[in-house]
Amino acid sequence: MMPVARAAFDVDEVRAAFPILSRTVRGRPLVYLDNAATTQKPASVIASIVQYYTELNANVHRGVHELSERATDAYEAAREGVKAFFNAADHHEIVFTRNATEGINLVAHAFARPRLKPGDEVLISAMEHHSNIVPWQLACAATGAKLVVAPITDEGELDLDAFDRLIGRRTMLAAVTHMSNALGTITPAEDIVRIAHAKGVPVLLDGSQAAYHMRVDVQAIGADFYVATGHKLYGPTGIGVLYGRSELLEEMDPFLGGGDMIASVTFERSTWNELPYKFEAGTPHIAGAIGLHAALNFIESIGLDRIADHERMLLEYGTALLEGIPGVRIIGSARRKGSILSFVMDGIHPHDIGTIVDREGVAIRTGHHCAQPVMERFGVPATARASLAMYNTTAELDALGAALGHVREVFG
Amino acid sequence: MTSDINDLYQEVILDHNRRPRNFHALAEATHKAEGYNPLCGDRLTLYVRVDGDKIADVAFEGSGCAISKASASLMTEAVKGRTLGDARALFDRFHRMVTTSPERSVEDLGKLSVLGGVREFPVRIKCASLAWHTLKAALARDAIASTE
Prior knowledge:
The complex is a heterodimer. Helix content of chain A is 40%, strand content 17%. Chain A is an alpha/beta fold. In chain A, helix 2 (43-56) runs antiparallel to helix 10, helix 4 (100-115) runs parallel beside helix 5 (134-143) and helix 11 runs parallel beside helix 14. By secondary structure, chain B is α+β, with helices and mostly antiparallel strands. Helices cover 41% and strands 18% of the residues of chain B. Chain B has helices at residues 3-8, 11-18, 66-79, 84-99, 125-140; strands spanning 31-37, 42-51, 54-63. The A-B interface holds A 26, 347-352, 355-356, 359-360, 366-368, 372, 375, 381-382, 406, 409-412 and B 1-2, 4-6, 8-9, 14, 18, 39-43, 63-67, 69, 121, 123-124, 127.
């Protein structure tokens, strides 16, 4: 008998955990292929939020009463869960934010802006989401610094040599995606960090897309900052995570001021709370953190390696399927790629594709995917994008293929 | 295939998408405006040559989905040679046609009626009305000052 390294991945069992997947859309079973925008939520995540509001609701870090203590325990347990999920060294390095965008803005405001001087540079890549472009543009505009963009290849891979060359004396920070939402490219995070650190430049990685497709170990990568968002990790919207190395977080001033982030307040001066509370002003999204914790537990119960295997199979299947449809061109062919299929069809605008496949119950994203510079780089106004998650099946990809056949029929 | 898809992508629309009419720049334009739908990236430049009270010529350039391109093409045919007042009135009637709820009947706008199908597709209404809003913006401005 063949040795079995891992328990079999049963996609039907995984699907059964997601209530929404049993609904129909326009009279057909939902085929949800827009996971890079947001993933669906397993029943355990939904239940954890209901349970919090039903049994535990109270504010955290404030009361001495039973509920407040228990809500605080659940909120802090969520932080421990995030710490373990990303293998951070210490739970103080995990800051809860609203989303990845807020995490990037926090670093741009509290870390970059006070340090940037006129003529300094922030280095990003040509495949960033707008959320990893605009905060740096704002920081540069406010300080007289310059935004520098490392190019990508025709395959959609980061040009590492150019990245290396572009890190100069004035580079203050590099901010790069760990996986492109528009192309699917997985960037060589360890190499990026090694190259930047060799020149004394700290690195922020945007893990919005990477974190739900592969195991992320922030210590092994050596990232200085890593951001992720809960709603793509099968968790609720409105909760995100910023990991920052203690040493850097300690040096930084707060981002937002208010309750919970202070040690003491007088009208003359205030002193800051310890990490990570210094960066969590006001009542946090307690239910969101608890829901995210349930989501991470769910992911771990399936296993990120098994999820990655399944998604790799789907990506290969979907790539072959799309390549077999005349007139379809896939945008983004990096050697290391997550389960995202961005494509265009000859003579047919992505929006028309999206509308027609939607009528068949197939949900895909069409447009510029908040990555207009990527569209420009590949000379297309927009793409259609099928993005796959742990619960997708080859049958769903077949449904997409059939729907694209109908698109062709309509347009002749 | 569902019938509303065929209602949306009628032959006239597909034809104007494939072979848009008046699809070029207009050197002697007196009015010009850019239309952009940030949601989908549809982008067009509209050129109008106004002579007295009349739209003597109108043309457009740009890229976009079949609905936005066909709508722009059909619009140029519909307003060419009309008075400014007629064009503005047609804007209002077109706008009413694409925004009235699908259950209610709407006025027949002749050839432009083929775009009535977007009423079943709320996110596509903007695609159909982009050219018209751009026309309104172009005409609302003073004539272009010559850059020569």
